[in-house]
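New to this. Help decode the following:
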Amino acid sequence: MPGHAPISPKMQDYLEAVTALAPARGGARVADIARRLGVRMPTVNSALRVLRGAGMITQARYGAVHPTPRGLKEGRGIERSHLGLRSFLRLVTGAGERAADAEACRLEHAVSPRTMSAIEAMTAFYSSAAGRARLKELRTFIRGRRRR
C-alpha cells in the first residue's frame, strides 16, 4: 500500500519465511513460521500483525498466511539477496553452508540493490571457467589481507 514505511529487518525475516512457506503449503501456517525462525507462536502472531498493517500479508482468522502482491515482491527480493549472498560467501570466502547462511541472513537487510547486483555479477564471474581460474588467486589475496 502506498504510504507505508519500510519494514524492519526483523519483519523482513518474517516476510521472507511467509514467502518461502506459502507456496508449498497453500499458505504459511503460524507453527511453520515459528519453527523456521526458532521463535514461539505468540511472537509470530505479533509480527504478522505488523506485516498485515504494512500491507505485506493477508490472513483469515486462525488461517493460513499469504503474501500480498507487494509482500511477495519484497519477500522474493529478500530471499534473492539471501541466496545470492550465501552463494557469494561460500564461493569467495569458502565459508561452510551454515556459516554462510547465518551471515547472509544478517547482511541481506543492509545490501542495496546496486551492491547486490555487483555481488551477483562477481559470483557469476567466479563461477565461470575464466573466473574459476582466478578464484584461487582471489582467496589467497583475501587470506593475506586477513593476516595484516
Q: What stands out?
A: The mean pLDDT is 91. The chain has seven helices and two strands.
